[in-house]
# Entry
Amino acid sequence: MMLKPDMITKINVVKPGEVVFEEGESCLVVPCYYKDFPLESAVLGEEDEVALQALADREIITGKVKSYYYLPTPGRAYKGVLVLGLGASYEFNAETLRRCVGVATAALKRNRVQHVYFDVSRFEALPLEAFVEGLNLGQYRFDTYRQFDADNTTGSVRELTLIVDEDADTERIGRACQQSALISLAANGARHFANTAANDMTPETLALAAREFAAMEGSQCTCTVLERDQMAELGMNALLGVAKGGEEAPKLILLEYRHPDASRTAALVGKGVTFDSGGISLKPAGKMHEMKFDMCGAAAVLCTLMAVSHLKPAINVIGVIPAVTNMPGGRAQTPGDIVRAYNGKTIEVLNTDAEGRLILADALAYTIDKYDPDCIVDIATLTGAAVVALGHVAAAVLGNDDTVVNGLIASGEATGERLWRLPLWRDYEKQMEGSFADLSNIGPDREAGSITAAAFLKAFVGSTPWAHLDIAGTAYGVKNKPYLESKYATGFGVRLFTRWLLEQAENG
Ligand code: BES
Ligand code: MG
Ligand code: ZN
# Structure
């Protein structure tokens, strides 16, 4: 993956008797539920235990959720102890741990900790995968364009040693945590693609990245990129119409991951608008720069395939990325234009800023036609209305199949990438009928904007089990998750999709 490894590269799982603290920048992390003292640790030195208990007695250390206390311990085998507050045990879950770790990441960084020893020997039930994720996502920094030497100015944790109970299955824990480390690395990869400025992240760059990754040894992935001419021949005029205003050549990126024992094929389609100016229906200037993030769906699909190709679950996965820019220009598509999509349906383009659904329409119909997948899921920063409905807390999910939708919701809950379902009744589909064509690309007024967008997409999936994720609110600008720096893209979808695919592979 094209990333600097500012994250954990080594994970060890040991029993309390086997712990040897590495000399140098090491830190012992001891978890602590709210007001649950004395601290539970098998390796904490006696003097430190006394010192920390004194602080607990004075309520300086409380174990409150998202609180931590860092005690420097010069002269000890470890350089410091970090007491990690987990809050009340009855309210605790994996997402709590991700957030607590996210907050504590700042202290680890400030103290230049490179090796974390997490003593969970008396906390059997802690979801350690969430600890790994919180740390890896929390440590991510985007400094591609910064002049300073990143290696000199930032400390980051490179190694994690989990200290587990005598009876624990160290191999199983190690495997699970390695898997989480890899998945969070892929999520950070998606964040990296998305954070990259639009002048450097074009449809061409996305296609190159996909090609490069597929060419890597052992990827089990093949990559095909359809060019403008090929798309024209196939009749993908909805996608091509969007690309008309820009100078960047549109690409349809097709990634195929195949497993010899797979009995199912899932397809993922990610919106790859590398910049959305709105086109002739130009957006206001204020937040237009944020529209470099309009390819977050594409990044999620690409990096999910990266994770999958390392983890090798027994399921076939097709990743499809329609990649374009949406720009005004003398040759740009204009409001009122009518285009014929790949599946033959005609679309009246009443607003050129509703471009995501146009490129997804062709991508969905083509993917179903070409690969005949058992299910198809698209992911897109599709509507501002999704932000109005759910804020930055959950993405909207809609679809025509309860199994697919509910499976995604469950994976979202487990990964902290929450989804909330919106309805998709016929009434909404009616609202998308055109006056001069089969469909209009916008609904009446601004009512139910996320639903009408999904109702439009539904016209391109036929009877294939399908779900649509609208990640306009969760792809960036997220402020409630301390493990995700709010000015960065979140990589939303990578962890959710990967888990969902692994589960399908296991359950046949
Ligand atoms: N990329 C935008 C949606 C978006 C808005 C994402 C805000 C993230 C934050 C999409 O292409 C768009 O412009 N949608 C329009 C649709 C409308 C014209 C029907 C919108 O939401 O305003
Ligand atoms: Mg738009
Ligand atoms: Zn857009």
Observations:
- Residues 273, 276, 294, 355-356 surround zinc ion (ligand 3) (CB under 6 Å).
- The chain has two domains: 10-188, 201-507.
- Residues 170-195 form the longest helix (26 residues).
- The radius of gyration is 24 Å.
